[in-house]
Amino acid sequence: MELTAAVEGLAAIAGRRRVHLHSDSAYIVNCFRERWWERWEKSGWKNRQRQPVANRDLWERLLAETQRHDVVWHKVRGHSGDPLNERADKLARDAIQTL
Known about the structure:
12% strand, two-stranded parallel sheet
């Protein structure tokens, strides 16, 4: 869900913008801060264990969106009282109920 949220959020922004993306997913934030995606691309989308990177399709879409924008990554602690993180969590839980 975190990957989809990041992809769709960036895709919804018209034009090229500077975007501050806040996520409680260390996996996503670290991927871009530490440029893991470069290693994945060079290795044919294999991780360090030489296994296929899970959700490659979403990672590739997210990579494309991050190249379209100037993204600044912010890691926030989940369920720690951050108002926007709590709101995003509630919206996601509510959306699940509509499926």
